[in-house]
Amino acid sequence: MEKSIIYVSPVSKKRHVINFKNLLETAGNIDNYILQDKVFERPDHDFSLPMSIVKSGAVVWDIGAYIGTFSIPFALEGFEVHAFEGFPSNFERTKINCAPYNNIKVHQCALSNENKKVISKFGDCTATEQKPVEIEYFMFDEYVQNNKIPSPKLVKMDIEGMESLALLEMKRVLEYSRPIWLIGFHHPGNILLENPEQKIEGYAGFVISEEGGFDFDRFKKLGYEIFDLKRHSYCTNKEEWFKWGDCNGEYMCIPSELIELRKMPNGSVTFTMI
Known about the structure:
Elements: E1 3-8, E2 15-20, H1 30-35, H2 48-53, E3 59-63, H3 71-76, E4 80-85, H4 88-98, E5 104-108, E6 110-111, E7 116-120, E8 133-138, H5 140-146, E9 154-157, H6 163-166, H7 171-177, E10 180-186, H8 190-194, H9 218-221, E11 224-228, E12 233-235, H10 238-241, E13 248-255, E14 259-263, E15 269-273
Parallel strand pairs: 3-4, 3-9, 4-5, 6-8, 9-10
Antiparallel strand pairs: 1-2, 7-8, 10-13, 11-12, 11-13, 14-15
């Protein structure tokens, strides 16, 4: 299916027509929001904050691009976008949707803590039974260096539970490039704590730090300030942002050298860019 929708820039207020092709008519995924003209009403598609604090023309990485609903709005604002999508059918749809935009480079690349090929059924966010497909995973620091991808000012990551393995091999980005991060965080929540051996469809790649996965407290240790975008709150410690009772979240991690924190009269914390 194909659908053209109106996108209004939160920064320039310009109206754009975006044409999405090869949409899947299945419940519960991004395609369905597009078909209903509601995709840019989703909280995770509110780009007003990142677009206002990252200058147009900067390099943006869209990790877990799906079909381009993040990449295209940023390309329209003049950013240089590198879109990474590992699931083969999604990659092909991303290429088609992003083809009209010269400032989007699409990479077929899934991320993990080692270079490997695996058979997976998860990836196109449909509500129907999915056929197993081969996914090729890469260690991202190595992939970036081999492909001479420029360092980003903004990284969006939404990879359905692989975050804790992918971040293990993103040390150069975390420590030296120090971009602003938008992380769509997925984990099995309390189910994993109660049944550590249980494999949960869709989150099979999530590994807790005690088992060798990425310790998300490292963002704090590296000098990032963390904001919970779902709860509109500033996170002072791991327990406030790494919530096991909630299986997903939306977080912004900003290097502390870029912002000045301000405590408001109601006790909440906000920030201004330096």
